[in-house]
Specification:
Structural class: mainly beta
Mean pLDDT: 87
Low-confidence stretches: 118-122
Helix content: under 10%
Oligomer: single chain
Radius of gyration: 16 Å
Order of helices and strands: EEEEEEEEH
């Protein structure tokens, strides 16, 4: 799972209340979608279903891959390309009309941490 947070302003106002988000991991040209919150994104397209979260002064937090959230699929990092990985995000105030946020966020450092091996043996 990957914690992700940000801040949203609608018409220069940082709102409070519900916010709706869609997420996809894509390559730099968005010709490939590696993962999306509901597994429907293809070639960087907008996923069909959204994640609801709370905005506090425009700030939000979500854990990507947290399957306890409605419309959130587990992450499968084995399909990610470590040299060309970006997070694409869409936002809506009403869960009807979504805007793609720009630019896509490069997440290479996080990916490296996900792929790092953990030893089961400790040598003294």
């Amino acid at each position: 799972m990957i914690p992700y947070s940000g801040r949203i302003a609608v018409d220069a106002v940082h709102g409070n209340g519900n916010g709706y988000f869609k997420f996809a991991f894509v390559n730099s040209t968005a010709s490939t979608s590696y993962w999306s919150n509901d597994s429907t994104s293809s070639a960087g397209s907008e996923p069909a279903a959204s994640i609801q979260t709370t905005l506090t002064s425009g700030r939000y937090q979500v854990v990507l891959g947290d399957t306890s959230l409605t419309n959130m699929n587990a992450l499968d990092t084995s399909s990610f390309d470590p040299s060309d990985l970006y997070l694409r995000v869409w936002f809506s105030e009403d869960n009807v009309s979504f805007d793609q946020l720009s630019p896509d966020t490069r997440i290479l450092p996080i990916y490296s941490a996900l792929r790092a091996g953990i030893s089961d043996d400790v040598i003294d």
